[in-house]
Amino acid sequence: MLLVSWLAALGLAGPLASQAQGLSVWNNKQCAVVLTYDDAIDADLDRVVPALDSARLRGTFYLIGSSPVVARRLPEWRRAAQRGHELGNHAMFHPCDGSLPGRGFVTPDNDLSKYTVNRAVSEIRANNTLLAAIDGKATRTFAYPCGDRQIGGVYFYDQLKPDFVAARGVMPGLQTAAQVDLSNVQCYAINGQDGTYLVNLVKQAEQSHTLLVFLFHGVGGGHSLNVSLPAHRQLLRYLQANEQRIWVAPMVEVAEKIKQAQPAGAAQK
Question: Beta strands 150-151 and 154-155: pairing type?
C-alpha cells in the first residue's frame, strides 16, 4: 500500500497504482492460481493429494457430502485438510437443473429444477456441518454443481453468502481482484487439454496479473471429465518452479484476500 501512496503522490495513481494494488492482493506475486478438484472421487486421494503434497502446493477439493468416497475415506480427507488443503462444499447430493439441454444424466431425485430454494440451502448447509466435522473449520467456499445458480429464476446463493467466503462457477476467464465476483468466481474447466495448454494459461495470468482458477475432475482417470497425469504433472512442476512469481493457494485463502481488497458489495451479483 505504501507503493500505491507513493505513486499517487507522483500523479501516477492510474494504471501503475492499480497494478501495484492488484499485486499486493496476490501476496506481492504476479498472479494467483487456484487448483480445484470436484466431486470427491478416489483419484483425489490416490493421485492428486500426493502430487500436490510432493510439490508443496495446496488445493481445494469440492466434496459432495453423499459421495461414498467421503464416508469410506473420511480419515484421509481429514489428513488432507490438516496438510492445508481446503475441503470445499459441492452440495450434499450434487443437484443439477434437469430442465436444461443435455441434462439426461440428472435423476428425478437430484433435479435442481424441482427443488425449492429452501431445500437447496438446507442441503448445502447440512454439507457444511459434515465438512466441519471432518476438518474442524468454520470458513470455506462453495462450488455450484453443474454451474447451476438459479431455481425458478432465484439465485439461491444469495441466502448462503453469510455461510461462505465465495462460490466458484464454471465460466472461463482471467480477472483482476477488482473484477472478481465472489458469488460466481470464474474458472477454466479442464477436460483432455495437454500440459502446454495448462502452463500457457498460467503464463497468461502472470502477464495480466490476474486470478486463474482451474477446475479438474478426474486426474489420470476416475471421471468422464479427465486430465492426464503427465499434463497435470507438467502444470504442478511449472507452478513449483516459479513459486516466487505465482501465488498458489486454496480458494478460501485467495477469496479472503480479494474480499478484503474489494469495497463492501463490490463485484457481487
Answer: antiparallel
